[in-house]
């Protein structure tokens, strides 16, 4: 089994990436209403990328109802699951995990295998039976054979160790590191389901650790570019993991959600 390529994220050289890394997005604190709206967009687009056909209308209504009634994700979620419980869990648990990571980022700065497994349990609770447990079967997609399941524990240990080493370095691009972690996790594909959704949550985990103030999603018009970025990274293992395009997608989407916030603030001031 070939080990994961050891390519520090800061080796991704790109002038535009370096320039936009200095944008003031990380210095802005958004209000809770905007944060929730950004989280709704994230959950909707992340589910769509995982081929879960939940409309933006349903996603918005379900999350807003959850927030309005201040349900506790662990003990009270059953109260809003009378109809379409699977769909509601796929939406609410996605939202709950994102909120938990954002609010607890200071205690989550050091990534661990146990932490990733606990996040998977929240995301996939009552959706699959082996939530938080590594898959015990081999997985083949339409055009890819994933690593053997017996290799998963040591590869996940290595992934977490490498991430913590890279994160401790001072000259890291948040976007490059988020792309590296997300794609590396997808390559291992450690769980039987939910890997794509968790990989995008891991992207946001990295951004939150650098102070980004709200979730970053991948809008529908960027879904094709996102898939192309993953394919590019898959193809270039001979020369080292190339996640530069994925880093650009994350960067572009983070700036989009930030610019949307600034536009709203300008409109508020204009029409007071």
From TrEMBL:
GO terms for molecular function: ATP binding. PROSITE patterns: FIDO. InterPro entries: Fido, Fido-like_dom_sf, Fido_containing. It holds the Pfam family Fic. Residues 111-252 form the Fido domain. ATP binds at residues 193-200. Keywords: ATP-binding, Nucleotide-binding. PANTHER family: FIDO DOMAIN-CONTAINING PROTEIN, FIDO DOMAIN-CONTAINING PROTEIN DDB_G0283145. This is Fido domain-containing protein. It comes from Polysphondylium violaceum. The lineage of its organism: Eukaryota, Amoebozoa, Evosea, Eumycetozoa, Dictyostelia.
């Amino acid at each position: 089994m070939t080990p994961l390529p050891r390519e520090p994220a800061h080796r991704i050289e790109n002038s535009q990436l370096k320039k936009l890394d200095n944008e003031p997005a990380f210095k802005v604190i958004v209000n809770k209403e905007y944060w929730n709206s950004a989280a709704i967009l994230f959950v909707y687009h992340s589910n769509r990328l995982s081929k879960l056909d939940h409309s933006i209308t349903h996603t918005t209504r379900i999350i807003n109802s959850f927030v309005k009634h201040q349900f506790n994700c662990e003990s009270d979620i059953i109260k809003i699951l009378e109809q379409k419980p699977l769909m509601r869990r796929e939406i609410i648990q996605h939202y709950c995990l994102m909120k938990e990571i954002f609010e607890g980022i200071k205690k989550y700065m050091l990534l661990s295998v146990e932490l990733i497994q606990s996040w998977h349990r929240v995301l996939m609770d009552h959706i699959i039976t082996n939530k938080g447990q590594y898959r015990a079967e081999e997985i083949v997609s339409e055009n890819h054979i994933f690593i053997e399941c017996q290799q998963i524990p040591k590869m996940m240990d290595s992934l977490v160790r490498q991430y913590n080493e890279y994160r401790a370095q001072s000259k890291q691009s948040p976007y490059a590191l988020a792309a590296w972690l997300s794609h590396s996790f997808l390559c291992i594909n450690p769980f039987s389901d939910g890997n794509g959704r968790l990989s995008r949550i891991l992207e946001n985990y990295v951004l939150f650790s650098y102070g980004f103030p709200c979730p970053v999603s991948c809008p529908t018009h960027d879904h094709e570019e996102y898939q192309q970025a993953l394919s590019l990274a898959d193809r270039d293992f001979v020369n080292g993991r190339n996640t530069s395009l994925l880093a650009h997608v994350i960067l572009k989407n983070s700036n989009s959600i930030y610019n949307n916030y600034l536009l709203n603030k300008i409109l508020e001031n204009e029409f007071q």
